[in-house]
Amino acid sequence: MSAPADTLRAPGVWLHATGPDQVAVLDVLAEQIGDFSAAPEVIQTGTTGNPGPQIDDPRALDTFLDTHPVQMLVLSGSLLPVALIDRAHARGIAVVLVNATAPITLDRWRLMPGSTRSTLGKLTQIHAADAATANSVRRQVHGRTEVFETGRLARHAAASSCNAFELDAMRGTLGARPVWFAYDLPSVETDAAFLAHAHALRRAHRLLMILQPRDPERGAALAERARELGFVCARRALDEEIDEATQVYVADSEDDPGLFLRLAPVSFLGGSLTRDERLPSAVGAASLGSALVFGPHTDGAQRDFLDRLVAVGGARQIGVAPALGEALAALLTPDAGAVAALKAWTLATDGSDATYAVARAICDWMQLNRGRE
Question: What are the Cα distances from residue 184, in Å, to 74, 188, 239, 354?
Fold first, then answer.
């Protein structure tokens, strides 16, 4: 987690986004840095809530650096803020450029030839997003700066963990049974989900529906409704076991959904059939290897990811509730489901290895240079 700028206790790391498209990248990087033992304190600027100092004003930069001790400045993107790099370099602060793509350009026009090369030479490390950028930069810096072909950094946080022992136990119980997950289901969509399950059962007679209600207090009512509709039901809150006859499992114990997302190759995003209902994390579901089905109503924050997920084949969007059952049935076929889940996982986790590598490099450098004047 990033620390507020005024709480930085010792020389730490300053992450600055050079454009709005880099904010999410640095959010994930800051979280990854915080996961390491003895992680340095982190401050983050370039965001809407915390733009930071005027980066082309040397006086403003000096004031900021006087009051916020940092040992490393990390810039994300391919725009080089010259004044900021110059002030940091003059103070002996290491400057690292991450997520860089060609062409790397200065933040303002420079008439002097070689200006970009000169500025790049003041950096301590450059982590390029691809081989072409890495090769281009190496030709410019001539060994004065370490250049790594690290890859594009992640825009989405890593998936949360779950109880591995319980996951293995449930996998053993389910065996080869097909499973789908009604993820964070609001009350208004309960019957639509049950009708979809009845439809999908016609093709997969052993299919299990795991239903996570948005309000766990409604677990008993949901189980009763499931039985009214003819389903054999078990409730997690009552420690009822899943057996071969169980068709609906109500997950009403406020568990982290990561357990069920890991079990289900297909998940439905609760709330997406209803206007003004919130949605659970599509990225979280996809990053755990679950293909997605969702309705016509999505929030703006997740719209871009869901559009890309549909484009690569990791999700299906439906227009009306009655289409949910057919979409589930299509994705639950073994070949289609496995391929879609893999595509969802690939998109959601894209860049996670690169983010880990950059965070590791930052923490290693800080540990090696801790206390250096």
Answer: 37, 12, 20, 31
| Mean pLDDT, range 286-291, rounded to an integer | 93
Domains 5-155+351-368 and 164-349 share a fold: yes
**What is the CATH number assigned to the segment(s) 5-155+351-368?**
3.40.50.2000
Distance between first and last Cα of the chain: 26
Q: With the CA atoms of 352, 354, 356 and 362 taken in that order, what torsion angle do they form, in degrees rounded to the nearest 10?
A: -150
Q: Express each pLDDT in 34-84 by its tens digit.
A: 988 889 999 999 988 889 999 989 899 999 999 998 999 999 999 999 999
Residue 305: name the closest of 281, 274, 328 by CA: 281
Is domain 164-349 in CATH 3.40.50.12780, yes or no?
A: no
- For the chain, give every domain's residue range: 5-155+351-368, 164-349
Mean pLDDT across 190-219:
95
What local confidence, expressed as pLDDT, does residue 113 receive? 56
What is the total residue count of the chain?
373
**286-325 CB burial, b ≥16 within 10 A, e <16:** bbbbbbbbbbeebeeebeebbeebeeeebbbbbeebebbb
77 close to 21: Cβ distance less than 8 angstroms: yes
Which strands sit side by side in the sheet containing 266-269, from one edge to the other? Answer: 233-235, 248-250, 208-213, 179-185, 266-269, 291-294, 315-317
Distance CA 61, CA 273 (A): 49
pLDDT for the residue numbered 108: 66
Residue pLDDT, tens place only, 225-277: 999 999 999 999 999 999 999 999 999 987 778 899 999 999 999 999 999 99
The single-letter DSSP state of residue 126 is: E
Q: What are the CA-CA distances from residue 193 to residues 86, 240, 271, 294, 327 (Å)? A: 59, 21, 11, 12, 12
Kindly state the tokens that stand for 157: 């946080």
Least confident of 57-66, 87-96, 111-120, 357-366: 111-120
